[in-house]
Amino acid sequence: MKKENIKSTYKSDDTEEWLDKVWTRPIGYWWARLFERLNVHPNTVTILSMIIGASSALFFAHGSYFTEGTKGLVLNIIAILLLAWANFYDSADGQLARMTGKKTRLGRILDGAASEVWFVPIYLSLVYRFYVHHSSEFHCIGIADTAQNAWIATLLLLAIVLYSGFVCHSRQCGISDYYRQIHLFFLKGVAGSELDNSVQQQRIYDTTPWKGNFLWKAFLKTYVNYTRTQESKTPEFQRLMNRLRERYGTTVNIPQAFRDKFRQLSLPLMKYTNILTFNTRAIALYILCLADIPWLYFFFEIFVMGGLCRYMRWQHERMCRQLCEEL
Q1: How far is CA 109 from the centre of its chain?
Q2: Which of 45, 207, 305, 307 has the most neighbouring CB atoms within 10 Å?
Q3: For residues 23 and 17, what is the distance between their CA atoms, to the nearest angstrom?
Q4: Span 97-147, pLDDT tens digits
């Protein structure tokens, strides 16, 4: 495989993480080439990634070496391999779409939902895992290992997991993807970005009839809410875009000098968007599951990743405020 061929399937060199460049994208490219020869649609690859990633939960539910011995270690390694495989497919679907030109709105929505489909069953499986294997934690903090205490601790962990997954994980990934699409918009324009807005998506939803489109309407409604959440978290960017439309009539007319300046200021933030998506959280999950302390992952997601996300948002909003004042 030539590096140039792989690089041609990137969204952009600006937004690619080092680990993706040396590991995920080359393997994803190999899969994309295979799917291209088999005439498999990118959306089918996305659905396959969802199935494979979700199935890893069955294996993550087992304790690793310290609680289940060699069998547990093997099952956890299988879980890690399945989730890594799902991530290769998640890379391959976008690479295949760019190689073949088969880009669809449904593909955009499915791609954004893939990690949710992976992590919801994984997170729940880790709650079950804690319920089965919690004796060492109880021993460390001096709690009697009774059925009642096990249920109380498990329900408490479930509440933490729900907050971690639906408030932290979902929003962290959503805002990171949004910042990447913003960067791509100023780098490549409308054609090179998937920067959608809620007004546009609501219009598509309203004009799509229910008859024969029930599932599609459900997808669209979810996506409308997704874009609204992204916009609500970025008030200074929304103000900047409104100012640009007022001054230039349409975003197509934004001067190249301004686009270049935005890219220069936005580029240092791309490393944070990459940290907050898959690789860093997956590596943390792998290590903590193999170490038989998977519950610690949720505190990592809430406090470490949450703190990084807040810092990224603060920096991006400050940048947009500065650019808006200069216009």
Answers
A1: 12
A2: 45
A3: 10
A4: 999 988 877 777 777 777 788 999 999 999 999 999 999 999 999 999 999
